[in-house]
Write a structure and sequence with these properties.
This protein is α+β, with helices and mostly antiparallel strands and 425 residues long. It folds into 2 domains: 4-105, Serine-tRNA synthetase, tRNA binding domain (Helix Hairpins); 120-418, Bira Bifunctional Protein, Domain 2 (BirA Bifunctional Protein, domain 2), CATH 3.30.930. Helix content is 41%, strand content 19%. The protein has 13 helices and 15 strands. The strands form 4 sheets. The chain has an 8-stranded mixed β-sheet with strand order 1-10-11-12-15-9-8-4. Strands 7-13-14 form a 3-stranded mixed β-sheet, with no helix packed on it. Strand 11 (334-342) and strand 12 form a beta hairpin. Helix 5 crosses helix 13 (391-401). The two termini are 47 Å apart.
Length: 425
Amino acid sequence: MLEIRFVRASPEIVKADLLKRNAQEKIAWVDEILAKDARSRELKVQTDELRRRRNTIAREINESRKAGKDPALLMKEAAELPGKIKENDAEQDEITNIIRTRLMRLPNILDDSVPQGCDDTGNVEVRRVGTPRSFDFEVRNHGQLAAERGWADFERAAKTSGAGFYFLKGSLVLLDLALQRFALDLLEKKGFTPVIPPFMINRSSYEGVTDLDDFEKVMYKIDNEDTYLIATSEHPIAAMYQDEIFEEKDLPLRLAGLSPCFRREIGAHGLDTKGLFRVHQFTKIEQFVFCKPADSWQIHDELLANAEEVFRKLELPYHIVNICTGDIGTVAAKKYDIEAWMPRENAYKEVVSCSNCTSYQAASLNIRVRDKENFESKQLVHTLNSTAIATSRALRCILENYQNRDGSVTIPNVLRQYMNDREFL
């Protein structure tokens, strides 16, 4: 959420950012917010004065009676004051709700380095790492290979749970766990504390961390409860410190979330229909950092480097793209994606999303850091998140890039210590 103080001070910056994002329909919201904000401040002055008057009028009534005067007009005024205050409070509450609703639907302010573009075709490649393997046989569909080798069962998962789910079995379960442990070990050495968060989160907390449209398009709601299954551990971890104040010495706080992720969205028909790439449930290791604003861009680079190291050590070819204005979404000020090479499609596909959300989430959640030089001074923290590894997507990468003619799959060197030193699936 954007802070009202920022919108009040810099409305032209907000409007220019909306133009960059091709969100011209929201520009009128800025003027609406400013008008409502002006009325809100006017109401506060009026209501404060009414409350002061309520506190003094009783004394005036008593003084009038002692002086032998008729206090009828004062008594009439005193009788009207509670109603006026209640009316002002009701209008103030309505305005506050409208302002917050609009602020939460205005996107974050983009960094100047975000490329301009209308959709994902405007994303800009930053660099490529690794050389795609040349195959002397036709690469098999990862889902078909996994099913035939007894490593996954998509048909029975569709029977029990519907499309977009899967049973992992045997060696692929062990490989999934190996990926998790590998990523966690790497992050722990870099100062990240592993966290398993709650797998459900209430709406008020969720509203502080994600695009509100996701409630309709992405999240699963628990019937008759004010809770949702998490789409990523980023969300409960961000909300963990809601309404709290950090001391400077405690930042940056680096956390590595391990959780299943539940998403209603699913891939298109074809390759994604029976497979592991776009599914309703998957496991992910997520990097999350709370930090001082001055440190966030350096940490953004660090998170990207950590995610790169995961895929570099897995020896999977990838490239990095700088996500453009039309594809970046609401919450991030800047986002990089890592896309790994998928030989069967002869294309790079997203496996990592790495975002600097600046103060956007912290403003909604009221998470601040105290200035060590001025105890009374507090500012919003910055929050950053990045995939370390989404195991289902990494499994697809490995099944395709490391498969052999006989249907076996070579286990990446870095994972073998977690697989009892096995070389093949």
